[in-house]
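Q: Focus on the shape:
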Amino acid sequence: MALRRAARWVAPAAVPFLLAVVLFAPATLGGKVLSASDLPLFQAPFPTQPLGETVENAAQFDAAYVFEPDGLEVREALRDGRLPVWSSALSAGVPLLASQQSAPLYPLNWIGVVLPYWESLAWIAVLKLTLAALGTFLLARALGLGVGPAALGAIAFGFGTYLITWLMHPHGNAYVVLPWLFLLSDRLCRTGRVRDAAALAAALGVAYLSGQPESGLIVSLATAAWVIHRLASARPPRDEMLRAVILAAGAAALGAALAAVMILPFVEALRESHDTSRSVPPFPTNVGITPFFPGYWGRPDRAAVAGPGNFTERTLYVGVLPTVLAAAGLFARRPRGPQLFFAGLAVGSLAVAIDTGPIAKAVRGLPVMDAVDLDRLFILASFAIAMLAAIGLERLLVGTAQERRRMLVAAVAVSAVPALAVLVAYPSRLGDLRDAIKQLLGGPSPATPDVLALASVLRWLVLGAIALTLLAAVARRRARAVPLLVAIVALAALDLVSMGWGYNPAIPKAQADPPTPPAVRVMRRLTSGGGRVIGVDSLIPNTASRWGLEDARGHELPVVERTTRLWYALGGGIGDATRAVSPRDKRTPKLLDVFGVRAVLFNPSAFRGAQPILSPPLGADPIAYRGPGGVVVEHRTGLPRAFVAYRWRRTRNLDESLFFMAASTSRQARDEPILETGDAPPGGPAPPATPASVISRSDTEVTLDVRARAAGRLVLLDTFYPGWRAEVDGRRTPITAANAAFQSIPVGPGRHKVRFYYHPTSVVVGGAISLAALAFLAGGLLLGLLRARRTG
């Protein structure tokens, strides 16, 4: 019996697992690593790449600049047995656990903690796709669909372009759990058992630990709609319905409790941020062609032209044959039950994500929804179309002769009408037929808009003709349809694997984990006393953390209001990443001073001959290194990491502090810092500020040796944020905000040992809730299994 149960899981998991291994073959079988970290190699601090070499996929910049550097930082913390609650390497310090982008507690990511990091990335991706496909297969089977239709739905969702393109992002962590949420909530609605509610809670907890709260919300709302649909369709007795509703609500609460260790710090981070909305305008209507022609504007890892949004955001494609079947199945007979639900989910998701006028505007104006990027509802449309494809194939197999005929007529229309509409609208493109065929076959051809669009249309027509042939054969030979079903699934797999091939880059490990460049070694020396670094058109955040450097910039969400607004108030701007500086801006030296920057990295192109193309103030800084990996300028006037000021200026709030900081000089920021405190400064003349020595520091603790000439205020250039505490000679001391964004405490005259440490209540309370929820869940599942064994 146990072997039979195992076989029911192993067989449907083996196919997507092997397909994923093939999809990522250069990394899983070819000795490379699945990484986008070749991108930083094309700018300082690395030497210029040889002519002719290009990045594998520039669209994966978030993975290269944020997720992978953060992942390495998280890995180091977890391997040391500590939670990655804070990072001192970004901005002036950020709450790393609250940002969630690295998804440190997502179960599959633990593989990268235990095993070699770079080699594990490909296998994590393989397991994600396997998880998504297996969940879809089991859901389809639970809804009464046959093995063939269920397998088609599994391949369509698991290898659809929207999931593939988001695989390196934390969004994909939540997306792959979606079919499991539907499966477990469906089982709960049917059985009303506590153990099924516990299993649903576990799946929700995993979704909430995904590292992308927005995606966790999207899949949760879809699951809630599915629960309502299943209970409304079944119409159980009132007491059974009430029980199912209570259990589902309890599962949602328990799932949130499991992830409380990340949710509570995230909520705290939202309170400390001034820019929490991720809302964007809906897609233009022309994005509606991507379910048919995903390569209409090309793709960034091959050839591309300008189109709406970007390939990752806009591309919704689950394969020619699944798309045809999904649409044709709706014409077999009047949709009902799950088919009607998934049709509504697909239409509703697209109506909100694409600019449909009143519908998109109304939903985007709802509370909470007005702060969410609803364009990413495309994942729900992808899942819904995949399920509709499975239902459509089932209908073709079991429907009446009349239903099958209607489906075939609809399949012909779906296969031909979109392509014909494009060709009729742009007949001149047929003149590029030869180049389009070369583009389709991978040969050399001009990557013009017309060629790329025509090649995409031709691809659809070719695969559509094969799909129609197979569907017609199935309709005629239902009794001997097994080989044809295998061919249908194989065609869908070939279609999607060829479309997804190469989008997630596979590069040599030597590129992902290169030797430390000479410029980095120089910056380490210049900042050994606690200074920060910055890059000008180079060293994109958060890559400096890979070499133990602390960057004055950072790219974590939600942004910390104090450091971000101070950055902009002092003349900082927005560049390729979250923040940038202009070396020509006369305010830049003060900006670097206030944030304690001691080393600035430039691309070699910023220099002509011996002189940098800089503003005179910054141009006066000496050059500490010049080589093929860039130019490092030593910024000697950066404020000390910690110093004692003997006079200060008081303000009432952040806005007032920012006003005075914008008007202050660097010397005033050091000798007369702005403090949001009620303590009055001493009268009379005061000596200049004196630096304090850093004895030791880690991400969550700084120990200082302070020698104060008189009573004063110790300023530490680390972010003022809830959870930071301070001790002077072992006695707790309250922290106040200094210079708008940093930390300050009072110190008396003489020598003191001062300790700042991060002990956030949000993490402590959240961790306690998560551990309690985990113990409750484990106990509930154990009792459920024991009860099932007794009754079985």
Observations:
- The two ends are 13 Å apart (CA to CA).
- The mean pLDDT is 91.
- The first helix runs from residue 2 to 23.
- DSSP finds 31 helices and 20 strands in the chain.
